[in-house]
């Protein structure tokens, strides 16, 4: 289970070109955008697209599957006809499939797309506002790649459907993703609860994090804060003592002239 749902989606490689004529917000933009579109290792049907865009309007597109240009404005249609009439232009564009797209897609699979990074999974309990339930459990999966992931809740090992909501997979902006799943629930004695995470990085061994209502989060936090305060107090006391000793014994005062 798990791996079959983890196929990468269509990847767009943007090798854009941007030029500005004029300055600041008054300028115009004209850009070419090249894309290699593919969704399988076989690179079967990999497609090279070039879009020519003035400001935000795409007026001309080359599509390697069609093997020709399509115009979207009068100027675009004029140029599409011109380029489509020239077999050397068409041959040159078509050659990008083998010369540019295939080698780059292979590099992408080798260096990024076939790699995966395991999420860190935690379960926290909070008290929901205005809910008939005692707890809102939050299962957070952090720092994973690729994006595709499945987070479910288990009661006595059986998947829970009701009272569960989830965020989207959110991009951290650094290739990694995070997701948070919420479950509003009231514990019953004798039951077990867990969050289950399925991801490419752990293939058929889902990550399962148990939650035990016998020790609510708030108590655990109080203990951690208490212990931290004691440790911090000791560190300051020891540092103060060392400083005092050094100052009173180690200093030789040199009188200034
Ligand atoms: C390119 O053309 C093919 C065949 O008509 C079409 O299926 C595909 O969606 C087109 N791709 C783009 C990006 O327009
Ligand atoms: C297409 O090419 C032919 C011959 O090379 C030329 O006579 C004709 O004007 C061209 N058509 C367009 C739309 O450029």
TrEMBL record:
Signal sequence, start to end: none
GO cellular component: MHC class II protein complex
Keywords in alphabetical order: Adaptive immunity, Disulfide bond, Glycoprotein, Immunity, Immunoglobulin domain, Membrane, MHC II, Transmembrane, Transmembrane helix
One Pfam family matching this protein: MHC_II_beta
BP GO terms, sorted: adaptive immune response; antigen processing and presentation of peptide or polysaccharide antigen via MHC class II
InterPro entries the UniProt entry points to: Ig-like_dom, Ig-like_dom_sf, Ig-like_fold, Ig/MHC_CS, Ig_C1-set, MHC/Immunoglobulin, MHC_I/II-like_Ag-recog, MHC_II_a/b_N
Keyword Cytoplasm: no
Its membrane topology: Single-pass type I membrane protein
Domain Ig-like: start-end pairs: 119-209
Full protein name: Rano class II histocompatibility antigen, A beta chain-like
Regions that span the bilayer: 223-244
Cellular compartments annotated: Membrane
Keyword Hydrolase among UniProt keywords: no
